[in-house]
Amino acid sequence: MTVAVVTANAYYIHPIIGEVARDFGVSEACIGIVPALNQLALAVGILLLLPLGDHYSNKRLCIIFVAMQALFILGMALAEGFAAFTLASTLLGFVTIAPYLIPAFASKRVAPDRLGQVTALLTAGVIFGILVARVGAGVIAEQFGWRTVYWCAFALIAGVTLFLPVTMRTEASPGKQPQSNYTELIRSVFTLAARHRDMMISGVIQGLNFAAFTATWLALALYLTSPELGYGVDTVGYLAGIAAISIFSTPRLGQWADRVGARRARVISAVVQLIGISLFYPLGANVWTLLVPLVIVNLVGPTIDVTGRMTFLALEPEIRTRLTTSYIVMMFIGGALGSILGTSVYDLAGWAGTCLLLLAISGLVVALSVIAERSWNQSCTQAASQ
């Protein structure tokens, strides 16, 4: 539940982005800057703040930064102008590190053969948060206006802040680390990333995967509420409810990835996702036919993330948070790129242009996943022959 609530804050904007744009009097292309800056700020915050999880209490860090999330959500609810709203959203992104501290925290407490299952369970919590954010935001905004969405979000995050000291166990001391100061700690993030090339390619793959996800939902919200289709923001929210399938499928697919191997599972998932994305344009005429590609994409998309994390969360416990830092930074740089491209391409070329963009991104995910698997297999063969 905690993971769901602290994750949801970045996704309330998805179904209501058109409503917010109209209220502040900005264009469809301009409104894309709000989620883009949120994602970029999140990447910067993760780079500068998440590595602290290898040195300090994850529990204490989570309490501090969740409380700051509550403050900036309140700022979004009260914002009177577009600039103030964008600033509050950007600062919210910067302090949203709790969802990424928790998986590293959990990975230090499970057996290696259960890593995929546990990572998938936490990913399911993230998916649930995204689901509640998008469905709830659409329904609430249609009935009570978009500001009410952020007042509800503030109530949820304030409640989590109060209960977090009880729900999160106190962990053991992380022990002595080779870094003697903060600057060296941050520098070590880049050093470790350069040393673990497999994690780097996993980060690039997930960055592209998240770019496709973000571009899909922002463009879809604009498309469904356009004069061409004429649906309300509540319909966008209801359609986002299809993500519920991921809550049940992702833990099972994580167990499957434990059996077949992370890299092989990623290739298969990426190919299935490409098939789903290829159906967006031919089935995009109405909300009912759109359910088919959305089910496919929501079924396998999170598995690409789970298998990517599995490639490095089995390494030494003392470096996992910093490797997670690099991975998540690349993921949210991709999300920011998807936010800009999704709204800009839709503004320029409509739904057809968006579908071509998504096909190109998904094709890159497949290609890189195949390259990563072949490279890993070759390195394993060479190691076995020595």
From TrEMBL:
Transmembrane segments: 31-50, 62-79, 85-106, 118-136, 148-166, 204-224, 236-253, 265-284, 290-315, 327-345, 351-372
PANTHER family named in the record: MAJOR FACILITATOR SUPERFAMILY (MFS) PROFILE DOMAIN-CONTAINING PROTEIN, TRANSPORTER SCO4007-RELATED
Domain Major facilitator superfamily (MFS) profile residues, every copy: 1-375
Keywords from the named record: Membrane, Transmembrane, Transmembrane helix
Record-given protein name: MFS transporter
Domain of life, per lineage: Bacteria
Organism of derivation: Erythrobacter rubeus
Pfam family, one: MFS_1
